[in-house]
Specification:
Helix content: 55-70%
Number of helices: 21
Oligomer: single chain
Radius of gyration: 38 Å
Shape: extended
Largest sheet: 6 strands, antiparallel
Length: 676
């Protein structure tokens, strides 16, 4: 169900704003909301502190990315035997780290340690940037030197003297032309693709002519720093490049070694995220020179918990809890049992329910559970899926609100076992082949599977109309509830009686025709009562098109049939491939069985993975389109209390206590007569 929310309105001394934020964070069930600005109040300016925290979080993100890149590059260098690096072993399925509230708030003392780590990482990053710059210089130097690869002489000998002009450089090969200049000098050219190296020597009096001709050929003199032979200069560049690569590798190793500090970095990331939320919350208060007014949303079952914390705080506070008013942006908080909670993942992926809207999670639970198993439907796959997810849940022990997807898949595995037993499938082996009872095999009886899929879909759709009818009655719209929903029951039962009733009783088809007539009439009336003025008749007749949409939605449930057959057929095919390959090696049965087992393992692992994903996606789509369309609107905003910004750690005081809602709030403090 969706918890009722209460608005906490609190007045306190501005000097105690931070202490109040800490109390609300400790409660784990208070979402700060913008307080109404009254005359004489103003918003606290928290931009400076918010910017500081944003910079700290940016530094932490840099540290994450830098260490991750270094560990990845170090692993690659280790594979190439360039460096020795052993990646830190991580505990498989380690539980999420948990702290007390006091331990979490004490993280402020670790800021200097974090600053030191980030400072070292920035120095390493600068060193890597310097290495990259030097490497680029080496590459540029080598590219400038390459045109002289065939020049055996020292490049420095081509220098002008008192009586001669000499030069060596490159020209555009396509622009080279012999002429008068070539007769006035001694020259030699080494071709190297589009650029050619050329050396010239001439008398001083012919220098102008030769230089002009070279300029026309886009002559570029060799860099002055190259004085020795090509081989000697290249050897120096290569040596420099090796030194840079070695220095970079050692720097990368130092960066990878910082992986030991990742736990602290994650902890401080959570700490600063919560700090930023508190600062942002402080900026939402309405302040005077000495006081502030704070507003927050608290689920009704948690009001007593927040009330006690504030009452025992010893702060100068006056507060009370009020019901939401018209126009308030009220968040949504679902408080369901352990069976329904995992399916909140599906609903929230579509859209969170609005406050006061019907909670769809209890209504999709049974259908999602059943449809998932029908799509995967194999005892072996169900056992593996349940086993893997159960091991994860037992080892990791995710706190409340986390790990819902794994819990959903675990329950999906149970459903898969049930339907696999009914359909007689055990890793693609039919129950009839091993002498086990089964209901029917979808491959042998596809018509029964199709009928079962459509029947399951029809039940869900009719249930959706029932839920919508109840919701409309609660909204005091009885005519829309009756005409707009019961019409589909009349139409469905009318079609069933009209077309299939003769096999039961000769008069039953006539009852079906009557039900069809009532259904069509109610459908038209549903459009009439929901419209006003002259549009009523048109809206009523337009509702008749909904019959087409109804049967279109019903046909969508054939995806259950398709996924169920696909899973079974793929499993059977991999089994047959393994057996065929085994039979192809009669002289080496051990080898044949080994190869067959490898095929079984790879094939079934692939089938389990791809069809688990397919079952989740298509099952979700059936809920979103065919089921939610009958009664659910969505568009709400999820409740996000202080502390929900944490990603890597969990504070054990941050839990919602599932208590029975109180009918009143007698212990709530009054802003006029509250404790001061």
């Amino acid at each position: 169900m969706l918890a009722e929310m209460r608005k906490l309105i609190l007045v306190g001394s501005r000097s105690e704003t931070r202490a109040t934020m800490d109390l609300l964070h400790k409660s784990g069930c208070a979402e700060i909301a913008p307080a109404n600005e009254e005359e004489g109040t103003f918003r606290a300016d928290v931009s400076k502190r918010a910017d500081e925290l944003a910079l700290k979080l940016a530094d932490i993100e840099f540290a994450f990315e830098f260490i991750t890149n270094c560990t990845r590059e170090a692993a690659e260098l280790s594979k190439k035997k360039i460096v020795e690096y052993k990646k830190t072993k991580k505990e498989l399925l380690a539980p999420q780290p948990t702290l007390t509230f006091e331990e979490f708030t004490a993280c402020a003392e670790k800021q200097e340690q974090l600053n030191g780590i980030i400072g070292e990482l920035k120095q390493l990053s600068s060193a890597l940037a310097e290495c990259a710059s030097e490497k680029l210089k080496c590459e540029n130097a080598l590219s400038q030197l390459m045109p002289y690869a065939e020049v055996a002489e020292e490049l420095g000998i081509f220098a002008p003297t008192e009586h001669t002009y000499a030069a060596i450089g490159t020209i555009s090969a396509s622009e080279f032309k012999e002429g008068e200049w070539s007769e006035k000098c001694v020259w030699r050219m080494w071709s190297a693709g589009s650029q050619a190296a050329i050396a010239v020597v001439c008398h001083k009096e012919d220098e102008e002519l030769v230089r002009g001709a070279l300029s026309d050929m886009e002559f570029s003199p060799a860099p002055a720093e190259y004085r020795r032979t090509f081989a000697q200069e290249k050897a120096d560049i290569d040596k420099r490049a090796e030194e840079i690569a070695s220095r970079r590798a050692q720097t990368v190793l130092q960066g990878a070694a910082a992986e030991k500090d990742m736990a602290l970095i994650k902890l401080m990331r959570d700490y600063y995220s919560v700090e930023r939320a508190k600062v942002t919350g402080s900026g939402m208060t309405a302040c005077t020179a000495t006081s502030y007014v704070l507003q927050a949303w608290v689920p009704l079952p948690c009001v007593e918990q927040v009330d006690k914390l504030l009452e025992d705080s010893g702060e100068s506070l006056s507060y009370y809890f009020a019901e939401p008013e018209e126009g308030d942006d009220v968040p949504t908080f679902a408080m369901n049992n352990s069976l329904v909670t995992p399916y909140e993942t599906v609903t929230n992926m579509f859209s969170a329910p609005k406050y006061r809207e019907l909670d769809p999670n209890p209504h999709i639970t049974a259908f999602f559970f059943l449809f998932f198993g029908m799509m995967l439907a194999d005892v072996g796959y169900g056992i593996l899926l349940t086993l893997f997810t159960a091991i994860y849940l037992i080892k990791v022990k995710p706190p409340r609100g986390r790990g819902n997807m794994i819990k959903l898949l675990c329950m999906g595995g149970v459903s898969t076992i049930i339907w696999g037993f009914l359909f007689g499938s055990y890793f693609g082996v039919g129950a009839k082949d091993i002498g086990i009872w089964y209901w029917f095999n979808p491959i042998d009886d596809p018509i029964n599977m199709l009928a079962l899929s459509l029947a399951a879909g029809l039940v869900q759709m009719l249930y959706g109309y029932l839920v919508n009818m109840i919701a409309l009655f609660k909204q005091k719209k009885p005519l829309e509830a009756i005409f707009g929903n019961t019409c589909w029951y009349f139409l469905v039962f009318g079609v069933a009686a009209a077309f299939f009733g003769s096999s039961v009783a000769s008069w039953l088809p006539y009852v079906g025709y009557a039900l069809l007539g009532i259904g069509v009439l109610f459908l038209v009336l549903s459009g009439v009562v929901s419209s006003k003025g002259v549009k009523r008749l048109g809206s009523g007749l337009g509702k008749l098109y909904g019959i087409v949409n109804f049967f279109s939605d019903l046909m969508s449930y054939t995806r259950i049939f398709g996924l169920g057959l696909a899973s079974a057929v793929i499993a059977m095919v991999f089994n047959q491939i393994g057996i065929v390959i085994k039979d192809m090696l009669p002289s080496a049965p051990a080898v044949g069985w080994f190869v067959a087992c490898v095929i079984f393992f790879i094939g079934h692992a692939f089938n389990l993975g791809i069809n688990t994903l397919g079952s989740y996606v298509h099952d979700s789509r059936l809920q979103f389109v065919e089921f939610f369309g009958k009664f659910y609107e969505g568009g709400g905003r999820l409740f996000a209390p202080l502390g929900s910004e944490m990603k890597y750690y969990y504070v054990d005081e941050n839990k919602y206590e599932e208590k029975k809602p109180r009918k009143d709030n007698k212990k709530s403090k009054s802003i006029f007569g509250g404790k001061k």
